[in-house]
Specification:
Order of helices and strands: EHEEHEEE
Helix content: 25-40%
Number of strands: 6
Distance between the termini: 12 Å
Largest sheet: 4 strands, antiparallel
Amino acid sequence: MHTIIKEITSFEVPEGKDEDFLKGWNVIAEQMRRTWGARTIQLHESLDPQTKFRFVAVTEWESLLHYQAARNQINKAFEDLRRAMPFAAYPATYRVVVSAVSTPHAQEMFSR
């Protein structure tokens, strides 16, 4: 079975460091974009400026094997970014267990 894997990483970016963070993130995203098995790389910004995690990255991988093969490269890219601008990152890996789509495709809702 082909299971898509998502890595979701929440970031604590110090106030006034958004532009520095975004520059560094773009470098990581470009590296990951060229990584075999990476499907999508997205960075989300909270609409609430007071939230602890104003930036959240979601990376989708073709499979757990692809993700594991790229893990060292990803870790190095994040370490490079942390050296350039210290921030706290909280990565976690997930698999989809329930998925739903909005109408008119409501009949496509499924779970594992």
